[in-house]
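Attaching the record inline, Q. Sequence:
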Amino acid sequence: MQIAFLTKSENMKNSIISNFDKDIMLFDNIEDLQSNIEKIEVLITSNMGFPCNAINSFILSKAERLKIIQNFGVSTDVIDVDEATKRNIPVAILPATNSVSVAELGIHLLFCLAKQVRKSEKAILANNLGEPLCEEVYGKKACVIGLGRIGTALSLRINALGMNVVAVTKDIQPGQGKICFIDEIYPPEQIIEGIKDADYIFLTLPLTEETEDLFNEKLVINCQRRPYLINITRAPIVNKEFIYEALKNGLLRGYATDVFWEEPINKDDPFLSLDNFVITPHIGATTVEVIEESIKLIKENIFKLEKGESPLYLINNKFLKGGDK
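Structure, as predicted:
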């Protein structure tokens, strides 16, 4: 069975190579994948550094032998799932493997902003002590937008820091707030109510047509406290032009993110000149634990395919019968 892995991460490449006894084709760009797609039976995808729907109708039209697209993670915005479904290609995810890892990165970015990590670096280089002026997070209010597995894991952790937590989500479950120690949960149409007096806003919701450019000037002008924004999901949820100006003019006090609109970020990008901007190189799910668990599940799904069984964690509705959500 010919397996291929599309990824820009050297850590993921090395882990795949060392943990599989099968011949795996490795690609770090769409063009090379496209040239070889006719040979591939199992395509493993990573969304890191690739645009939405990179695995599109043109590529899928040539994927004559493709039996499954296995996403390395939860979010499948790199795949045109509707097109794959039309062509009878199952798409599988790896749910819950990265929830803790990404939530922990959210905590890291929280403290990078509160403790002014960019200004601290400059103070060290200038031989200054006792600078910059930082903040405690205890007692501050956080709004988590998106309450899936990652949002839930994050909410529990920021509550443990003594922060007051509210959330915005489209699927409000009875008792959810009490279980997650969340003071109030708002539906999407009340998002302004959720963020208006927040000190920190976390983005943990998936990228869809509805959420693209969600965080924009219309939202921020309703904020009372000039909040910090932390993005551990997808860059296009934030309006790029607006966020840059908001950081420069103080409408937002800071922006910390694990994702960018172009990955990797250009070293000359103007965002990098801002003291109130912090970025990590899309490492939310790049931990030893996540990669080991993910590879284990991918191997299990390939084994099921080889035995003619239904793979686990399919997301195309037409293939869910007999599978495992």
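Confidence is low (pLDDT under 50) at residues 321-325. The CA atoms of residues 33 and 253 lie 41 Å apart.

More tomorrow.
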